TrEMBL record, chain B:
Keywords: Amino-acid transport, ATP-binding, Cell membrane, Membrane, Nucleotide-binding, Transport. PROSITE patterns: ABC_TRANSPORTER_1, ABC_TRANSPORTER_2. It is a peripheral membrane protein. Its main location: membrane. Residues 4-238 form the ABC transporter domain. GO terms for molecular function: ABC-type amino acid transporter activity; ATP binding; ATP hydrolysis activity. Belongs to the ABC transporter superfamily. The keyword Cell membrane applies. It is found in: Cell membrane. It comes from Alsobacter soli. CDD domains: ABC_HisP_GlnQ. This is Amino acid ABC transporter ATP-binding protein. One of its GO terms (cellular component) is plasma membrane.
C-alpha cells in the first residue's frame, strides 16, 4: 500500500541521520588512529616500513571504497568470518580514511622545516620528544583545514553503506521512497539533511584556512 | 686533555668530499674562530662536532666521550654541546620562556617553576629579561638570536658551537649579538664559532682556524694570524672579506 510522504517520514529520515553521524564518528576515529600511525611510519627512518605503508596507502587510494565495502561484507563470510553491516562499514571506512588522513598528516609533518628537528635534537630531545613538543604542535595548524575537509567527504561517503543494508540516512531514504513512491521529495529531503551536516563544516574549514594563512 | 678533540676526520656527501683529514683540539675556555669561504667545510665541521652530521673516518671526542660511536648516547652528549644556528631555529609555536625551558623540563626533568627561573636568569644574561612571555615572531632578528643563545645556555653546556650566528642579521643588529657572544666568552665558555666577523675573531678568538677546500689550511693565534697571514689563500680571503 502506498502511503503519503509526510512529516513523520521526514522525522524518520532525520532520525536515520544519527546513524550516518555514528558511522562517520566511528570511521573518523578509526581513520585517525590508523592514519596517525601511517603518517609516522611514512616519515620514519626505517625504509622497509616506509615502503610497506606507502604501498598500502597507494593500494587503498587506487581502489574504490565501494569495492572495499563489498570485499569485507561479502568476501569475509566466504572465508568463515561473519561480519555484520556495521562492522564491515566501520572497517572499510577506517581503512579508506586512514590512507587519506595518513597522507594529509604526513604532508603536514614534512612541511615543518628540517631545522626544527635539528634544533630539538641539538637540545638533547629524543626523536619522540621532537615530534611531541616541536613537530606535531606546528603541524596541527597546517593539518586542521584539510582534515575537516576530509571529514565532509567522509560524511557523504557513508551513504555507500546503504548498499550493504546498513540503515543510515540514504538507506532510510531508499526505504521511504519505496514506501511512498515519492522519490523526488524524499531524496531532496535526504540531500538537504546531508547539506545541513556538511555545509557548516565546509565553512569552518574555509575559515580555519584563512585564519592559519594569515598567521605567521 | 682537550675538551674537544677532532682527530683526522673525513666527511663526504656521496662523491663530494667536504672534509679531508681535519684535526683540531680545543682546550677548556678557548674561543676558536673557524673562518673560510662558504663551502670550505667550516659549518659542516661544526655540525659533525655535535653529531648532526655523520663522519666517514676519524674520531671526535667531547670531554673524552666519542661522538661518532654508535653506542654513545648522543642525546646526553648534546646536552653538553650547545649549538646556535644562523637562522635561530626558535620554536615559533612556543613563547620565549617555553623555548628556553622545553629541554630543561622534558630532558632534564626540571620542575616548571625552577625552569622558568632558569629562563629568567639566562634571558638576563642576554639582556632580554622583559621578553620572557613574548613569541619569537614578535622579536627582531637580533633578539631572536639572543633568545637562541639563551636557550642554549640554559642547558649549561660545556662547549658552545656558533654557526654564523650573525650572518642572517641586518648589519645594525649584529652588534647586539656580538656583545652577547663577548660576554659569554668572558665568562669562560669554551666556544667554537664559524664567523665572518673578523673583528670579533681578532679580539676574542684565542685561536683562528682557516679552512680551505675541506682542510685546515692555516691556524694560529687569532690576532697574529689575521694580522700576518702566512699562506696566499688566507691573504686572498682576508683581502676579500675586509674590503
Amino acid at each position: 500500500m502506498i502511503r503519503t510522504f509526510s512529516y513523520v517520514d521526514v522525522m524518520y529520515l532525520v532520525a536515520a541521520a544519527r546513524w550516518t553521524l555514528a558511522l562517520t564518528s566511528t570511521a573518523f576515529v578509526g581513520s585517525a588512529l590508523l592514519g596517525f600511525l601511517f603518517a609516522i611510519a611514512r616519515i620514519s627512518p626505517i625504509a622497509p616500513l616506509r615502503w610497506l605503508v606507502a604501498a598500502l596507502v597507494y593500494i587503498v587510494q587506487g581502489t574504490p571504497l565501494l569495492v572495499w565495502l563489498f570485499m569485507i561484507f561479502f568476501g569475509l563470510p566466504l572465508v568463515g568470518v561473519s561480519v555484520n553491516p556495521w562492522l564491515a562499514a566501520a572497517v572499510a571506512f577506517s581503512v579508506y580514511g586512514s590512507a587519506f588522513l595518513g597522507e594529509i598528516w604526513r604532508g603536514a609533518l614534512v612541511s615543518i622545516a628540517k631545522t626544527q628537528w635539528e634544533a630539538g635534537a641539538s637540545l638533547g630531545l629524543s626523536t619522540f620528544q621532537q615530534l611531541r613538543y616541536v613537530i606535531v604542535p606546528q603541524s596541527i595548524r597546517i593539518a586542521i583545514p584539510p582534515t575537516v575537509g576530509f571529514l565532509v567527504q567522509l560524511i557523504k561517503n557513508t551513504s555507500l553503506a546503504a548498499t550493504i543494508g546498513l540503515v543510515e540516512l540514504t538507506r532510510e531514504g531508499q526505504l521511504t521512497a519505496a514506501g511512498t513512491y515519492k522519490p523526488f521529495a524524499v531524496y531532496i529531503t535526504v540531500a538537504s539533511i546531508y547539506f545541513v551536516l556538511c555545509f557548516p563544516l565546509t565553512q569552518w574549514s574555509r575559515s580555519l584556512e584563512r585564519k592559519f594563512d594569515g598567521a605567521r | 686533555m682537550a675538551l674537544v678533540e677532532v682527530q683526522r676526520i673525513s666527511k663526504s656527501y656521496g662523491a663530494l668530499q667536504v672534509l679531508t683529514d681535519v684535526s683540531l683540539d680545543v682546550a677548556k675556555g678557548e674561543v676558536v674562530a673557524l673562518i673560510g669561504r662558504s663551502g670550505s667545510g667550516k659549518s659542516t665541521l661544526l655540525r659533525c662536532i655535535n653529531g648532526l652530521e655523520p663522519i666517514q673516518a676519524g674520531a671526535i671526542r667531547i670531554d673524552g666521550v666519542q661522538v661518532n660511536d654508535p653506542t654513545t648516547n648522543l642525546r646526553k652528549l648534546r646536552q653538553e654541546v650547545g649549538i646556535v644556528f644562523q637562522s635561530f631555529n626558535l620554536f615559533p609555536h612556543l613563547s620565549v620562556s617555553d623555548n628556553i625551558t622545553l629541554a630543561p623540563r622534558v630532558v632534564k626533568n626540571q620542575p616548571p617553576e625552577a625552569a622558568r627561573e632558569l629562563a629568567r636568569e639566562v634571558l638576563r644574561r642576554v639582556g632580554l629579561e622583559d621578553k620572557l612571555d613574548a613569541f619569537p615572531a614578535q622579536l627582531s632578528g637580533g633578539q631572536q638570536q639572543r633568545v637562541a643563545i639563551a636557550r642554549s645556555l640554559a642547558m649549561r653546556p660545556k662547549v658552545m658551537l656558533f654557526d654564523e650566528v650573525t650572518s642572517a642579521l641586518d648589519p645594525e643588529l649584529t652588534g647586539e649579538v656580538l656583545k652577547v657572544l663577548e660576554s659569554v666568552a668572558r665568562e669562560g665558555m669554551t666556544m667554537i664559532l664559524v664567523t665572518h666577523e673578523m673583528g670579533f675573531a681578532r679580539r676574542f678568538g684565542s685561536r683562528a682556524v682557516f679552512m680551505h677546500e675541506g682542510r685546515i689550511h692555516e691556524e694560529g693565534r687569532a690576532a697574529a694570524m689575521l694580522a700576518e697571514p702566512k699562506t696566499l689563500e688566507l691573504q686572498t680571503f682576508l683581502n676579500a672579506v675586509l674590503h
